[in-house]
Write a structure and sequence with these properties.
Residues 14-262 form the ABC transporter domain. The chain is α/β, with parallel strands linked by helices. The chain contains 11 helices and 10 strands. 36% of the residues lie in helices and 24% in strands. The strands form 2 sheets. It has a 6-stranded mixed beta sheet, sandwiched between helices. The structure holds adenosine-5'-triphosphate.
Length: 272
């Protein structure tokens, strides 16, 4: 059993190759400004890990460090170590294309490419390989099925992805990620632009994907974190506005009997 921890996470009981992701003593900076300090977090394979915490505490920053997408977008740099199934992802030997293929990401605002539904899903596959049309057709169908979108779009695959509703666009973006068969999917508030019905569909989808995939999801929605995750990590800022991991544990424990008073206060809506 993985016991709870308070401000300093306890050493992992698993050898790190058995963890999907393992952050140890991670500090993150934008330029010279430190926004996260000393984050150590284990992400268990085949589980959904929710990251919660008040605005600005570094949740998005943290998950963008997990597949090194942050450094593409900004002047982000990190200290400490992050391992992906035992491999240090900040090692110079890491192939970044391969890493980002294995650790996919879905963003807050659906961002389909301005092309057909089919081409959106096929896009990443074509970047990495040259499959025959029939293999590609199968991959597209299977990714759209896994993303619970196939039945809605199977007769309009050549239509522009931009003609879909927001919820459909987000499921399309999930299909696009799934088509290249990642081992981990990072989701940054994937439902924040969606209505309750579309949100429910994405939540059901997250639960069904968990069979084959490890998911890390940032959410502001406490009920959502409680409903869909196995483990929850609560981040918050200290007096100097630097984000920290305050507590991580099984979701039932975090929402039922969190160890740290700041976690309880946040969950009960007393701050943030
Ligand atoms: N590209 C960037 N350059 C400089 N500072 C940034 C950048 N992105 C984020 N920050 C700063 O880093 C801190 C953490 O931001 P981040 O977006 O990670 O927090 P968050 O917890 O995800 O917030 P929210 O819940 O509002 O999305 C904030 O102070 C933010 O202003």
């Amino acid at each position: 059993m993985h016991s709870s921890n308070s401000s300093k996470p306890t050493p992992t009981p698993l050898p790190t190759p058995d963890l999907a992701l393992c952050a140890r003593g991670v500090d993150v900076y934008y330029g010279t400004i430190k926004v996260l300090e000393d984050v150590s977090l284990d992400v268990y394979p085949g589980k959904v890990t929710a990251i919660i915490g008040p605005s600005g505490c570094g949740k998005s920053t943290f998950i963008k460090a997990l597949n090194r997408i942050g450094e593409l977008e900004s002047n982000m740099r990190i200290k400490g170590e992050i391992q992906f199934f035992g491999q240090n992802i900040y090692s110079q030997r890491v192939n970044l294309n391969r890493l980002r293929r294995q650790i996919g990401m879905v963003f807050q605002k659906p961002n389909p490419f301005p092309m057909s539904i089919y081409d959106n899903v096929a896009y990443g596959v074509r970047v990495f390989s040259r499959p025959s049309r029939s293999v590609l057709d199968e991959l597209v169908e299977s990714a759209l099925t896994d993303a619970a979108l196939w039945n809605e779009v199977k007769d309009s695959l050549t239509k522009s992805a931009l003609s879909l509703s927001g919820g459909q666009q987000q499921r399309l973006c999930i299909a696009r990620s799934l088509a290249i068969k990642p081992r981990v999917l990072l989701m940054d508030e994937p439902c924040s632009a969606l209505d309750p019905i579309a949100t429910l569909k994405i939540e059901e989808l997250i639960r069904s994907l968990q069979q084959e995939l490890t998911i890390v999801i940032v959410t502001h929605n406490m009920q959502q974190a409680a409903r869909i995750s196995d483990r929850t990590a609560f981040f918050s800022t200290d007096e100097s506005q630097v984000g920290r991991l305050i507590e991580t544990d099984a979701t039932a424990k975090i929402f039922g009997a969190a160890s740290h008073s700041r976690t309880r206060d946040y969950i009960e809506g007393r701050f943030g």
